[in-house]
TrEMBL record:
Organism: Arthrobacter zhaoxinii
Record flagged with keyword Transmembrane helix: yes
Residue ranges of the TM segments: 9-31, 43-60
Chief location: membrane
UniProt keywords, alphabetically: Cell cycle, Cell division, Cell membrane, Membrane, Transmembrane, Transmembrane helix
Entry's localization field: Cell membrane
BP GO annotations: cell division
Entry annotated with the keyword Metal-binding: no
Domain of life: Bacteria
Protein name: Cell division protein CrgA
Membrane protein topology class: Multi-pass membrane protein
């Protein structure tokens, strides 16, 4: 059985960056009472924030 390959150098910063960006997106939406990050999205800003964070979490199983 072969040993798993190491991830590229950029993998971990992108993974954690997406998780943090999603969290910051949601926090920004709540703190500014919907004025930011994208006012025209309205409540969908929550979905965008969770979507970004979920992309980061989906990267975790491949992290070595």
């Amino acid at each position: 059985m072969s040993t798993p390959k190491e991830n590229p150098v950029w993998y971990k910063p992108v993974m954690f960056g997406l998780m943090i960006l999603g969290l910051l997106w949601i926090i920004t939406y709540y703190v500014t009472q919907g004025q930011y990050p994208v006012p025209s999205f309205g409540g969908r800003n929550i979905l965008v924030g969770f979507g970004i964070a979920i992309l980061g979490f989906l990267m975790t199983p491949r992290w070595r």
